[in-house]
Amino acid sequence: MAEHQPQSQQQFGGQQQQQQLQPRSHQVVKAATAVTAGGSLLVLSGLVLAGTVIALTIATPLFVIFSPVLVPAVITVGLIITGFLASGGFGVAAITVLSWIYRYVTGKHPPGADQLDQARHKLASKAREMKDKAEQFGQQHLTSGQQQSS
């Protein structure tokens, strides 16, 4: 711990020495530049705020007057844009699926084909099992029916 304090004091002292090495005029120029930039941005933000208030003051009566037209127009435009985006998305999805199916059918092995083949084999084996069980059940049902009638 005792070693750590002198090191931090040395670093702090080094920063003080570095600041003292810069001439006073550089520090004054830096401060003047910062004040000028900050002040001009503050004035600009004030002008933008004033312009926004004036624009809202002028536009508010126009919005109130034209709202019976503007609101349905905005809703209609929104629905039209949503429809075009949805139809485009569905079209891209359909083209992607059709190209995947074409590559799968032509044997080009698209991504996911292995999983599809495994699922197809599982379904086929389950279907065979169910068919065999149904045949066994049907034969048992027929033999039990024949025994009862005799």
Describe this entry's structure for a reader.
With 150 residues, the chain is mainly alpha-helical. It has a domain at 114-139. Helix content is 91%, strand content 0%. The protein contains three helices and no strands. The longest helix is centred in the middle third of the chain and has 82 residues, at 24-105. The relative contact order is 0.02. The mean pLDDT is 85.
Gross morphology = elongated
* Count of alpha/pi helices: 3
Q: Report the strand count.
A: 0
Along the chain, the helix and strand elements come as: HHH
Which strand-content bin applies to the residues? under 5%
Computed CA radius of gyration, to the nearest angstrom: 40 Å
Distance between the termini: 105 Å
Q: Provide mean pLDDT, rounded.
A: 85
Q: Runs with pLDDT <50, length 5+?
A: none
Helix content: over 70%
Q: Tell me about the largest β-sheet.
A: none
**Structural class assignment:** mainly alpha
Can you lay out the helices and strands and say which pair or pack?
Layout lengths: L3 H18 L2 H82 L7 H37 L1
Summarize the structure.
It is a multi-pass membrane protein. With 150 residues, the protein is mostly helical. Helices cover 91% and strands 0% of the residues.
Q: Which key phrases capture this entry?
A:
single chain, 150 residues, mainly alpha, 3 helices, elongated
